[in-house]
UniProtKB/TrEMBL annotation:
Domain called Sigma-54 factor interaction: residue spans: 335-558
Species assigned in the record: Acidaminobacter hydrogenoformans DSM 2784
Gene Ontology molecular function, alphabetical: ATP binding; DNA binding
Record keywords: ATP-binding, DNA-binding, Nucleotide-binding
CDD domains on file: AAA (cd00009)
Cleavable signal peptide: none
Annotated protein name in UniProt: Transcriptional regulator containing PAS, AAA-type ATPase, and DNA-binding Fis domains
BP terms from Gene Ontology: regulation of DNA-templated transcription
Pfam families: AAA_lid_14 (PF25601), Sigma54_activat (PF00158)
Length: 682
């Protein structure tokens, strides 16, 4: 018989492969053979299989619910590892002069915010931290750098490097493991003392967890910021800068990294933008010394944590024409459409702008649905009345309800004493644009349906009902008919918002628009694009659509060059090019997709296996290896990640969660046709 282990089973889940060995070595050194230890890599690309453990450790808070669902032991205990920094290692930073600018160097951006917030919790707020994770910008002006236990990037210009060491697994967690494994207090005290120099200089465990939760929330918001077409800034209630998007950097041609974690008043520009609005929100105007004008908006977007903590989103939308305050920035003439597919959509939108029907705009993220909504309003008889836009996916259910319907004074914790008028009421006579309507909760859908039927609003906490005259334009990147079948979207609301439906095609289906959009994004000036670069823009599938194309152009503009080549593209596009062909800049290159490359042959096999068997990484590795392809599991993970980003595959929970999307099936068919064509030419 095989003996059954009676040791305490401890499983650690991490999201970075590099950290797996680090935690494994620490825990083995501390607990030796007293526990049965496993460190596993969590990836959203591969469904998590059921596992057995007595104690489950995790490094990021969102994993807890996922792990609890998959652990077969109902008595398992879950601990956030409470990673923090040893206080004594921070002394060198505390000795720096006030206002010193220094880089925080790390392999990726995820833990940089956690580290920055930990510095603040230790009272280190006299220096200006600048996150560095390999961005392709000039950082040579910085002479100080902080490393987190390993020199992840070699920065030869740095004159003073401070290594603050690896992050520490909190001793609170280590003691809990020791207690569960029936290890003596003396044994654990000896081990923990050997592990860290001074336990008293650590932050409280619960404070470390709260910092991690806050860091995750900020990271999520920063990711959303870069999906916005307008320059945008995220600040907290104390007006500390939490982050900004690339559009803000490119619009004002300034490096805002040094502002992260700093009060907004340290930047004259950001302070001026903030003061263009009321103290707690609203709209305003800002004009630069050069005469550029902006419509500025600030509003609450989230609350989280054990105590109520507001976050504020500040947007600065360029005003391109000399317009009165009641008019809009964008009109139909601002929409670039050389393709027949997009011309048809614009023609329909112009026709229905003259009606009073509600409109539903469908299409993937980044195609310009809000621009189309602006244009419909600007061409309607409501154009001299307000236009209000709200993203239903950027708010919690409660916050979105108060944003739309308003509230009376003191209606809930954190509410303004004077109350607040909702967007539906303040847009009376005009238009409200509800972006990502598919993200609205079922409860809110009921309120929206009642509003559309009765055209009445009742603020939260008030008995007053007010009649309003508002046209509603909605947008979504979800399949609402599928959502209705799943029960996540009400069919009666769907038919209320969709008497007119406009489907905006993705950029890959209207490639004739790529070149003119790129030209507009690059702006005035004699820019010369190399032939391989032109070929890239025509061939890349642009899963992020127009927004992604504009972001790519903004990145290239930041270098101030007039002659642009593929070397000026962001790293992810250069990786894509290397996968497509070996030597994109070779003078022998005639096409960006000549025949079928080795990488494309691998893509065909992976897409076909997923379509047929919902194959996982290891199954894919075995099949490809048996067919003679030289690939590793890491390479397959990288390819799957790119396929997911390009919309070819979708991964959901469950044993057979990986499947081809319609886009992926078209990609598979195209590659198979290319293979047939190539074989026929040989």
């Amino acid at each position: 018989m095989i003996p059954i282990s009676t040791k305490l089973k401890v499983t650690v889940f991490v999201i970075y492969e590099e950290s797996a060995d680090f935690y494994l070595s620490i825990l083995r050194r501390l607990f030796e053979d007293h526990i049965e230890l496993e460190v596993r890599l969590y990836s959203d690309l591969s469904p998590l299989e059921p596992f057995d453990a007595d104690i489950v450790l995790f490094t990021v808070n969102f994993l807890k619910a996922i792990l609890a669902e998959k652990c077969v032991n109902p008595g398992a205990v879950y601990y956030h590892m409470g990673n923090t920094l040893q206080g004594k290692n921070l002394e060198a930073i505390k000795q720096l002069n006030r206002g010193t600018e220094l880089l925080i160097v790390s392999e990726g951006s995820v833990f940089l915010w956690d580290t920055l917030l930990t510095f603040k919790a230790h009272g280190i707020d006299h220096v200006d931290f600048v996150p560095y994770y390999g961005q392709r910008r000039d950082f040579s002006a910085y002479k100080y750098a902080i490393y987190l236990g390993i020199e992840t990037y070699e920065l030869p210009w740095i004159e003073n490097a401070i290594d603050i060491g690896w992050r520490v697994v909190h001793p609170f967690v280590l003691r809990k493991i020791g207690e569960a494994a029936a290890l003596s207090e003396d044994y654990m005290a000896e081990k923990i003392t050997a592990y860290m120099a001074d336990e008293t200089d650590l932050l409280d465990y619960h404070q470390c967890v709260e910092i991690s939760i806050e860091s995750e929330a900020i990271q999520e918001r920063l990711a959303l910021l870069n999906q916005m077409e307008s320059p945008a800034l995220l600040i907290n209630e104390q007006e500390v800068v939490l982050g900004f998007n690339e559009r803000l950097r490119s619009e004002f041609q300034m490096d805002f990294e040094k502002m992260l974690g700093q009060k907004i008043y340290k930047s004259e520009l950001l302070e001026s933008l903030r003061r263009a609005c009321d103290d707690r929100g609203g709209n305003g105007r800002y004009e630069t010394a050069a005469g550029r004008r902006y419509s500025v908006e600030i509003k609450v977007i989230e609350s989280y944590g054990e105590s109520l903590q507001h976050r504020f989103l500040l947007k600065a939308v360029p005003i391109l024409k000399d317009e009165s305050p009641t008019q809009l920035t964008y009109r139909f003439q601002d929409i670039i459409c050389e393709s027949q597919e997009m011309k048809r959509v614009v023609a329909l939108a112009k026709h229905f702008a003259g009606t009073e029907e509600n409109v539903l705009i469908e299409g993937p993220s980044g195609v310009g649905k809000e621009l189309l909504a602006h244009s419909i309003h600007a061409a309607s008889k409501r154009r001299n009345h307000p236009f209000h836009a709200v993203n239903c996916g950027a708010f919690s259910e409660t916050l979105l309800e108060s944003e739309l319907f308003g509230y009376s004074g003191g209606a809930f914790t954190g509410a303004l004493r004077s109350g607040k008028k909702g967007l539906l009421e303040s847009a009376n006579g005009g238009t409200v644009f509800l972006d990502e309507i598919g993200e609205a909760s079922l409860k809110l859908q009921v309120r929206l349906l009642c509003f559309l039927q009765e055209k009445e609003v009742q603020p939260i906490g008030s008995n007053a009902v007010k009649k309003v005259d508002v046209r509603v334009i909605c947008a979504t990147n979800r399949d609402l008919e599928e959502a209705m079948a799943l029960g996540t979207f009400r069919d009666d609301l769907y038919y209320r918002i969709s008497p007119v439906t406009l489907l905006v095609p993705p950029l890959r289906d209207r490639l004739a628009d790529v070149e003119p959009i790129l030209a507009q994004s690059l702006g005035p000036g004699a820019y010369h694009l190399s032939e391989p670069l032109k070929n890239f823009f025509k061939a890349y599938p642009w899963p992020g659509n127009v927004r992604e194309l504009k972001g790519c152009a903004a990145y290239m503009l930041s270098f101030g060059k007039r002659d642009l080549t593929t070397e000026d593209l962001p790293d992810k596009y250069q990786r894509w090019l290397r996968g497509v062909q070996k030597d994109i800049d070779s003078p022998m290159t005639k096409e960006i997709l000549p025949m079928v490359t080795e990488r494309q042959k691998i893509e065909v096999e992976i897409l076909a296996l997923i379509d047929r068997d919902h194959a996982g990484r290891r199954s894919l590795l075995k099949t490809l290896s048996d067919q003679g392809f030289k690939v590793t599991e890491y390479k397959i993970l990288e390819i799957l990640s790119e396929m997911k980003a390009q919309g070819w595959i979708e991964i959901k929970k469950g044993r057979h969660g990986t499947f081809l999307t319609e886009v992926g099936r078209r990609r598979l068919d195209a590659l198979r046709e290319a293979q047939v064509s190539t074989n026929g030419c040989q």
